[in-house]
Amino acid sequence: MTLSARNQLQGKIVDIQEGAVNGCVTLDIGGGNKIYSTISMNAIREMNLKVGAQASAVIKATSVMIGMQ
């Protein structure tokens, strides 16, 4: 798969909360860090996302928000 987004984080799907239209997918990227993504249930089914599967979070640079600690 070729993508223009260069920010990709590899991990394992550890949870999928299914809703009527959207679902929340939790991706464990290691080091105690998790990424949560809300996507359509159609996309979850089409991509055959399952708990335990390896997956990537693809983040466009224009969508990253930086904050101060």
What does this structure look like?
- Helix content is 9%, strand content 51%.
- With 69 residues, the protein is mainly β.
- The chain has one domain (7-58): OB fold (Dihydrolipoamide Acetyltransferase, E2P).
- The chain has a four-stranded antiparallel β-sheet.
Largest sheet: 4 strands, antiparallel
Output the number of helix runs.
1
CATH fourth-tier homologous superfamily: RNA polymerase II/Efflux pump adaptor protein, barrel-sandwich hybrid domain
Count all strands and give the number.
Answer: 4
Gyration radius over CA:
13 Å
- Coarse structural class: mainly beta
- Low-confidence runs of at least 5 consecutive residues: none
Task: Indicate the mean pLDDT.
Answer: 91
CATH fold group: OB fold (Dihydrolipoamide Acetyltransferase, E2P)
For this structure, what is the CATH class? Mainly Beta
Helicity level? under 10%
H/E element order: EEEHE
Write the layout of secondary structure elements.
Layout lengths: L6 E12 L3 E9 L2 E8 H6 L7 E6 L10
Q: What key phrases describe this protein's structure?
A:
69 residues, mainly beta, OB fold (Dihydrolipoamide Acetyltransferase, E2P), globular
TL;DR?
This protein is mainly beta and 69 residues long. It has one helix at 41-46, and strands at 7-18, 22-30, 33-40, 54-59. The protein is built from one helix and four strands, in the order E-E-E-H-E.
